[in-house]
Amino acid sequence: MECFPKDSVYGLFAEIGRLHFLRTHSFLEKTGVYPGQPPLLFALYKKNGQSQKDLAKKMRIQPATMTVMIKRMEKTNFIKREQDEKDQRISRIYITEKGNDVCKQLIEIHKGMEAECFENFTQDEKIVLRRLLMQIRDNLVVGCDKSKESQEVEDNR
């Protein structure tokens, strides 16, 4: 028995998320990048030398998870970690030349995925869908923030 009908709004949303993950993963395998790594590469591609702490916050992941991701990506030479010159307690993360090259590949992969996902959509349909997706995102961000606040209250007890 299913928790929710497959053709319900939530069922379709969950299925699309899973299919998107599988399709994207098939492309990522060719680049040597793992599914959670593109957001970090894109963040560094836009603004290199960010602190490990700031990156974890922006990506909404735990600092320990960020540490594991950084170590893995250092081994593949996509990024490098250096101590901040002014404050040795801060680790700054930099994208390498190899990381820049793979980031350019990822941009092309995402363009292809976008074209595949929205084939046969009119511009008006894409505008409406974008607005709806932004509303879903905003709802989830609020929920995540509330969840984080309640966890912080629990931690401080």
Automatic annotation (TrEMBL):
GO MF, one example: DNA-binding transcription factor activity
InterPro entries for this protein: HTH_MarR-typ, WH-like_DNA-bd_sf, WH_DNA-bd_sf
Organism domain of life: Bacteria
Any Pfam family hit: MarR
Keyword DNA-binding carried by entry: yes
Keywords for this protein: DNA-binding, Transcription, Transcription regulation
HTH marR-type domain span: 1-138
Gene3D superfamilies xrefs: Winged helix-like DNA-binding domain superfamily/Winged helix DNA-binding domain
Keyword S-adenosyl-L-methionine appears in the UniProt entry: no
Protein name: Putative HTH-type transcriptional regulator YusO
Gene encoding the protein: yusO_1
